[in-house]
Amino acid sequence: MKALITTIVKPLVDYPEDVVVTENEESNKIVYHLTVHPDDIGKVIGKNGRIAKSIRTVVYAIGSDVKKRIYLDIM
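Structure tokens predicted for RNA-binding protein KhpA:
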């Protein structure tokens, strides 16, 4: 899942080397934290959060096989 998030985000940003995805797994959920360069935050979020919503939709759809709830935080 981390590779999927990285693959989606890297072409969107100006500093692809600063894209970091960390995973925090708890008993009933998995939280992925996406960190990008400060200049790229707007590119990942998009106008009115459209790009962020699209990324989350893809991640949630792929993660529907997992019994745990999946979250994506953009930092």
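The chain has three helices and three strands.
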